[in-house]
Design a protein that fits this description.
Elements (H helix, E strand, L loop, with lengths): L16 H25 L7 H15 L1 H13 L1 H10 L6 H16 L6 H16 L2
Length: about 130
């Protein structure tokens, strides 16, 4: 019969409270820095500031109990607005579908139905690929 030495099964030392606190504050400071960086980038052409601010807010959300409570309140108040952020915070986030969905929403809010290009382009690509792979 084989056996493993007892040293392999000893539980690792629990993390000290100070180390967890330092990690939390470091994540909070990093998140604030990224948010400020996003605010500085925001006036530049393109949507560069918005995704950077979202990443900073997610870092703050991971480290702040107050932010988590506010996030849950916002989730109950506006679930359609919060759902993309929840998808991005998963262990395996789905970046492309989230950004595509948000682009379609933005197009829907800004343009009339006859002027929407993304929806028509997606349908055209779908038809094209269906014809190719039949």
């Amino acid at each position: 019969m084989t056996y493993a030495p007892l040293a392999l099964f000893q539980p690792s030392k629990p993390r000290s409270r100070t180390l967890r606190t330092v990690k939390r504050w470091a994540l909070m400071a990093g998140g604030l820095f990224v948010v400020l960086l996003g605010i500085l980038i925001a006036p530049l052409p393109g949507p560069g500031g918005v995704p950077v601010i979202a990443v900073g807010l997610m870092l703050i959300l991971k480290s702040s109990f107050w932010a988590k409570r506010q996030f849950i309140r916002a989730q109950y108040a506006r679930p359609k607005w919060i759902y993309p952020f929840r998808r991005l915070m998963r262990k395996k986030p789905e970046f492309a579908p989230v950004f595509w969905q948000q682009a379609l929403r933005a197009e829907k809010m800004v343009l009339k139905r006859s002027r929407r290009r993304l929806t028509r382009g997606r349908k055209g690509l779908r038809r094209y690929f269906r014809k190719m792979f039949r």
